[in-house]
Amino acid sequence: MIYIKILLLLVALISPQSNLDRDVKYTYAKKSPKQINRQPAEDVTHLRVNNLLTKEALETASDVATQLLKICAPPRCKVVGLGSSPALLIAYLQATDPASAISLPISDFRHSPRQAKKGFNINNAEDTALDNKTKNSLFDYFENFLVPQLGSDTEQVILVDFTNTGRSLFAAQSYLELFIHERTRQSLDITSVAMLEPSKKKKVQRVGKKYFNISDTHFMELDRDRQFFINMIMSRYDHYSEYGSYRITPKLHREKVIQDADLNAGLPIKNTSLKRKLFVNKVADFVYENKSNACRASLQ
User: What is the number of domains present in the chain?
Assistant: First the structure.
């Protein structure tokens, strides 16, 4: 009897599953998982933009923009934001007056037209003057991208950057001045505004004078608005800037060139993402509200 039971058990184990068994397991496997409540991508993007564009951040951008427009009044003067760090400031200025500000994407550009001097790391290619081929590529970029946006009425350009050292700001200013002198021969005044913490001012001044021969920079100290400065300098607005990144010189790591898709890739690509649109709309709404409040106050 025991042998019969064992034999029946073995047969059951090695025999194919019945249709009923397969149907039951198939049905079980096809059961829908428990639904997870997730916010749509657009709602998440709205939330991120709102968290970044707080009332305090927008009010600070308004204050800084007002100070800039006092020293750079359109249409004769244009503010040019370097890279993505001034994205909020440039968006605010453009919402106030579309002709007042321009974005100039240029990534990791710190070259001095003057050859490397004592104090710079002579083994770092960033500390030397550009070779003629790269300089011509940079000048082509200025001519094809920046000049058409400046227009014929512009007499002054103010470069703006949030900085701890001033090197990117002074490098762009130096080469833009060279470009104006060598390519256009027109009279265009190029100055710069360094947005920084008060503790960094002396260092930035020293870098400008010693390595770039620049001493007429304007300084805006953001001590009271430190979080605004941190957000800018930490690239928290990178994904909301007007353009994608653009690189004239290749990335270097231990003196080896790193392949970079942005290198000499024609003109910068316009940022048409949803987050950029929401970002611009929120800034524009704040500017409109400020103008409406000012108008109502003047009528009272």
Answer: 1
Helices (H) and strands (E) in the chain, counts: 11, 7
Give 84's DSSP letter.
Answer: S
Cα diameter, the chain: 111
pLDDT score for 19: 42
C-beta atoms surrounding 60 within 10 Å: 21
First to last CA, the chain: 107
Evaluate whether 191 touches 174 at the Cβ level (below 8 Å). Answer: no
* 84: Cα separation from own chain's centroid: 2
What is the domain range of residue 152?
55-287
For residues 55 and 202, the answer to whether their CB atoms sit within 8 Å is no
Look at residue 110 in the predicted model and tell me its pLDDT: 86
| Between residues 278 and 33, the one the model is more confident about | 278
The confidence band for 50, taking pLDDT boundaries of 50, 70 and 90, is confident
C-alpha distances out from residue 109 to 71, 88, 138, 279, Å: 26, 21, 11, 26
Residue 9 lies inside a defined structural domain of this protein: no
CA angle 157, 158, 162 (to 5 degrees): 150
Q: Which two tokens stand for residue 114?
A: 């003057």
pLDDT of residue 191: 93
The residue type found at 60 is T
Look at residue 42 and tell me if it is in a domain: no
pLDDT band at 250 (very low <50, low <70, confident <90, very high): low
Q: Is residue 17 part of a domain?
A: no
Q: Give yes or no for residue 101 having a pLDDT over 80.
A: yes
- pLDDT greater than 90 at residue 175: yes
